[in-house]
Design brief:
The protein is mainly α. It has helices at residues 39-43, 79-85, 88-97, 103-114, 123-128, 136-146, 160-186, 199-208, 219-231, 239-248, 254-265, 273-284, 290-298, 319-334, 341-355, 357-361, 369-379, 386-406; strands at residues 3-11, 20-26, 33-34, 63-66, 71-74, 77-78. α3 (88-97) packs parallel to α18, α9 packs across α18 and α10 runs antiparallel to α11. Bound molecules: acetyl coenzyme *A (ACO).
Length: 435
């Protein structure tokens, strides 16, 4: 909800266009916004903001980030408290319903999600159409999109109950599809969901059980996965969330909208960084090579970046990175891998970078991806599936944002405008006169 404040912005022009007064709205926290919606009708001019550096595309009450403080809040609750006191399904409930569940609400939500984890048996045929070496993200874009053709009973997006059912289906079925993508890639039979297991334990079972060997659930590892999911559950209006909102603004099918979000997340500038951070550590290889590597990072001509460092919004320690480092310790200890080569290397690299003037002056701190690759690798998750795990976690954020958008009375189809710099009107020449 926005409120108008006393303040107004006045835009004046040097080309004779009369100046324009625009209202300023203030949210509960964060920067005020200037309402420019009447700008074009009043002046015939657009604003220009590629990359949305200064543009709020919607109002939202789901997630708040203060990049300077290094603060992340889901519905007002700090990520540090949620990661320690709640599990992923409680976090999902919070993101979807604005409040944390009480015990009875949690039990009924868990039961609802658990009872939607199976996918239609027909889905197997979609998987079998993919090459075994297909990237899991391409498989997920295809199979999540394919869900659109299965649920004709709940496709009236103007009906809040239908929206709810779609949200639950997506949260419930994503782990099944991600695990199926993995099983397909390694040529093992699909493992069906097991309703007596928790959300994260069920996912690990679908990943690692086989018909010849049960998966023994390790609570430390399950808790680590659950924490990865909580930390990635939402991150306000990032590229993939904005993609879901834009796709959904036309009234498109929610499963198709989430498939669009997955496509956007796949890009290396977005969801692919944890994979890159792990490869970077492998490449550096040993603590002795850190000095030389940092030299290359500082050399603008080398094109080398310290992956897992820096963030568009966080200009302080990413709060998720602190939690992920803690989880890293716990997992490696539980597996007897305290001397893990890459973890030691990561810690040494982080220490050196945090003391180096180059990183300090640019406010470059570790982001969540700096440690999440090491944790996922320790859990046995293959590198190619890292972004798929991110998609599984972010599905709740995407669908919560989609629901918020659909029920917003100010919602309109998203339709950015442009500064046209191409040719002006001209006539089509006959073929004989075309150069
Ligand atoms: N290593 C070395 N230098 C860096 C890094 C880095 N990781 N990140 C930023 N810089 C430098 C830039 O070269 C620039 O230096 P300059 O001012 O001398 O030209 C300065 O810091 C500012 O950087 P920008 O690129 O302007 O920052 P921006 O906000 O556009 O980029 C980004 C943020 C893309 C995340 C960047 O920091 C980066 O590429 N990091 C590595 C990749 C990564 O870890 N991505 C994960 C993001 S978190 C997530 O998606 C879950």
């Amino acid at each position: 909800m926005t409120t108008t404040v006393e303040n107004k912005a006045t835009l004046s022009f040097s080309d004779g266009t009369p100046s324009l007064e625009m209202p300023i709205y203030t949210g509960t926290i964060g920067p005020d916004v200037i309402d420019i919606r009447k700008l074009y009708a009043s002046t015939g001019k657009f604003t220009y903001d590629p990359g949305f550096m200064s543009t709020a595309a919607c109002n939202s009450s789901i997630t708040y980030i203060d990049g300077d403080k290094g603060e992340l809040l889901y519905r007002g609750y700090p990520i540090e408290q949620l990661a320690v006191n709640c599990d992923f399904l409680e976090t999902c409930y919070l993101l979807l319903n604005s409040e944390l569940p009480n015990a009875a609400e949690k039990a009924s939500f868990v039961s609802l999600v658990t009872n939607h984890t199976m996918v239609h048996e027909q889905m197997q045929f979609f998987f079998r159409g993919f090459r075994r070496d297909a990237h899991p993200m391409s498989v997920l874009v295809g199979t999540v999109g394919a869900l659109s053709s299965f649920y004709h009973d709940s496709l009236d997006i103007s009906d809040p109950h239908h929206r709810e059912v779609s949200a639950i289906r997506l949260i419930a079925k994503l782990p099944t599809l991600v695990a199926m993508a993995y099983k397909y890639s390694v040529g093992q039979p699909f493992v069906y969901p097991r309703n007596e297991l928790s959300y994260s334990a069920n996912f690990m079972n679908m990943m690692f059980a086989t018909p010849c060997a049960d998966y023994k659930v390790n609570e430390v590892l399950v808790r680590a996965l659950d924490r990865i999911l909580i930390l990635h559950a939402d991150h306000e209006q990032n590229a993939s969330t904005s993609t879901v909102r834009l796709a959904g603004s036309s009234g498109a099918n929610p499963f198709a909208c989430i498939a669009a979000g997955i496509a956007c997340l796949w890009g290396p500038a977005h969801g692919g960084a944890n994979e890159a951070a792990l490869s970077m550590l492998e490449e550096i290889g040993s603590v002795d090579n850190i000095g030389e590597f940092i030299k290359q990072v500082k050399d603008k001509n080398s094109g080398v970046k310290l992956m897992g460092f820096g963030h568009r919004v966080y200009k302080n320690y990413d709060p998720r990175a602190t939690l992920m480092r803690e989880t890293c310790y716990e997992v490696l200890e539980a597996l007897g891998l305290q001397n893990d080569r890459l973890f030691k290397l990561a810690m040494a690299l982080e220490k050196i970078a945090l003391e180096d003037e180059y990183f300090v002056s640019r406010k470059l701190y570790p982001n969540v991806d700096f440690y999440s690759g090491i944790v996922q690798r320790a859990l046995g998750i293959p590198v190619s599936l890292f972004t798929g795990i991110f998609a599984l976690a972010r599905t709740v954020g995407w669908i919560a944002q989609w629901k918020e958008m659909i029920s917003d009375p100010e919602q309109k189809i998203g339709r950015p405008r442009q500064l046209f710099v191409g040719p002006t009107r001209r006539d089509v020449p006959p073929m004989s006169r075309r150069g």
